[in-house]
Amino acid sequence: MIQLNTTSLSGSQDPSSSLIPAPQSQTGDGFQTALSAALSATLQQFGINPASVNLSITPATTTPATTTSAPAAVTPFSAAASATPAASTTPTETSSTPAPAESFDDAYWAAQPPAVQALRNMDDYDQRSQLASKLASEGYTIDVPIMVYGWDPAKITAARESYGYTWVPSALQNPVAEAPGISMGATTPYNPNNAPAGSIAV
């Protein structure tokens, strides 16, 4: 801590008699000596006679801040992805419970025949499309956006419901000519209460 106390100069005192006075106390600390000299020079630049200033330098003491918990560590993405979830404080709850959309997707695929379930883990689009065509020709019901394009079952189902679909055509059926609630007159309007055989319920 630095304290500066100025005192007025008497008329008989020569302001230039001591431009950079010695520090008030010599502690042997080179830093304090240099700081005193720098402050005195600064005072002189502002037109203040350093001899009229009582300069006191007291080492400051700091108390470490008390924290209630350690800061969270920054974890790289790859490590975070493979990290084991923290244990739940409630015995009946588990942190490994999948999200609702993930649970829906798992339930959707689990409801499909084993032959169709194979489409879920095929990364190559051409191979997936060929297998889907083969399965459709064998009589399996293939939902093209989900099973061929690889779109998310939960999101596709939610979108279909929001547009008023109660059924959608499967791979070998004709596409819907008019969206629910729209009637152009020249095509067959969508009938939510009359799902064709082999269509996919929403």
What keyword list fits this structure?
2 domains, 7 helices, mainly alpha, 202 residues, two-stranded antiparallel ribbon
Describe the structure.
The protein has 202 residues and is mainly alpha-helical. It has two domains: 2-7 and 16-57, no CATH class; 99-201, no CATH class. It has seven helices and four strands, in the order E-H-E-H-H-H-H-H-H-E-E. The protein has helices at 30-45, 77-82, 100-110, 114-117, 125-137, 144-148, 153-162; strands at 2-6, 53-57, 167-168, 200-201. The strands form two sheets. A two-stranded antiparallel ribbon has the order 1-2. The chain has a two-stranded antiparallel sheet with strand order 3-4. The longest helix has 16 residues, at 30-45. The chain starts with a strand and ends with a strand.
Q: Strand count, sense and closure of the main sheet?
A: 2 strands, antiparallel
Helix and strand sequence: EHEHHHHHHEE
Query: Helical content, roughly?
Result: 25-40%
Radius of gyration: 41 Å
Q: What number is the mean pLDDT?
A: 73
Instruction: Name the poorly predicted regions.
Output: 6-28, 67-94
Strand fraction band? 5-15%
Quickly count the helices.
7
Task: Briefly note the structural class of the backbone.
Answer: mainly alpha
How do the strands line up in the largest sheet?
1-2
Secondary structure: number of strands: 4
Q: How many domains in all?
A: 2
**Roughly how many Å apart are the termini?**
75 Å
Shape: elongated
